[in-house]
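User:
I study polymers; will you set down one protein's sequence and backbone structure tokens?

Assistant:
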Amino acid sequence: MTDRFARALWLEPPYACRLRDEPLPEREGEQLLIRSLYSAISRGTETLVFAGAVPESEYSRMRAPFQDGSLPGPVKHGYANVGVVEDGPPNWIGRNVFCLYPHQTRYVVNADAVVELPADVPAARAVLAANMETAVNALWDAGIGVGDRVTIVGAGVIGALIAGLTAAIPGTDVELVDIDPGKSVLAEALGARFRAPDTATTDRDIVVHASATGAGLDSAIALAGFEATVLEMSWYGATPVTIALGGAFHSQRLTLRSSQVGAVSPSRRARRDHGARLALAVSLLADARFDALFELEDAAFDDLPAVMHRLASPDDNSLCQRIRYP
């Protein structure tokens, strides 16, 4: 491979992927040439794309910012890349940046497509920025505030980030609920209490669901107090989900609300755009508690195809799998 080529991961749904050589375009004007240091795989979105489980109605809405190809065919998909600027305007060279770019060794983008990492945000942790942006939007959508009693059902990456942010708000009482007792270590690191579904506290002010299962959503509804909000963060792709809306759902006057990162929360939309929200998400990763979300070992870029197969398995319990570039 020469300096005019890069390597990138292409997903070939269902359940196939490979690394391809990519021609690098010539950098022009104020554009930046970035060499990737780390990327991360979204267990929710990317594995659904990999599995071919995206409904046809969502093909265009699921498009990543720098995606090549179109669903259902082969796509270069992903949005959690941290790199260093190798070439560009002199004031940019050598800076570490986050970009919503797929898994690729080097790439060229406009300067306004990246967020420079603050000095106190390590490059290795900054790959959580896209997921953190989702978590920030969730807190805005849910209206979580001082003293709220909040439960998060599902201790995956999104649920854990929401738990960590919420636990930092003064006076909040935060429980992280999961069927895996091993997640108790994660909850403790984030400043939340761990609970199994059958021991979780009821009568909560806000319940956030992030387990991507119907059973988890049923648990979230059961834990909500009178006139409380249940915020649904999970996206199920083409899989139908059945939930129990009998019982106390109506008598408790519950609000079931969706949250999705594609649009800035209505509560902030008049004053914050996507760029401002992403910059905030990056800055919040100065908090070392969030290192608890990573696997013990990074995976090598060359191993990405095997990693995708592993993460797509229902038996895999990984949280955020970070990819290390050569």
Observations:
- The chain has two domains: 5-124+294-324, 133-258.
- The first strand starts at residue 5 and ends at 11.
- The chain has a mean pLDDT of 95.
- The two ends are 13 Å apart (CA to CA).
